[in-house]
User: Fold this.
Amino acid sequence: MNKLKKSPWMLHYDASSCNGCDIEVLACTTPTYDIERFGIINTGNPFHADILLITGGVNTQSASVVKQIYSQMPNPKVVVAVGICACTGGIFKDCYNILGGIDTIIPVDVYVPGCAARPQSIIDGVLQAVEILEKKKEGADNEKQDHSH
Assistant:
């Protein structure tokens, strides 16, 4: 299934969540769910990340950080919004400081709803992101070939 020449690296950022989804993301790395069995490597460095996994809605303080992290990631890159807050702003969408879901600030490729999102759903979303990343890489490779002629 995974045709990538390297293992995709994933960066998790909490934009403003209640930590429910963050705990479930952490559960994905435990032996019970073991996301690493799919070749996913967790990193804390956006310069190395292929996949940006974000929890929580975007607020006025996190918006610039989300944009900065996204801009520091190499292309191609994929964004996964985990939890209903990251997808739409969730139950906090009407709060004075919540701007909405992640897609109000940066493009989102995969939405994983839930409150909190279950580890199985998160892993499924990350695997969808890997497939999208592969297609983006193939598209970038084809574009390079077209320009080299």
In short: The longest strand covers residues 9-14.
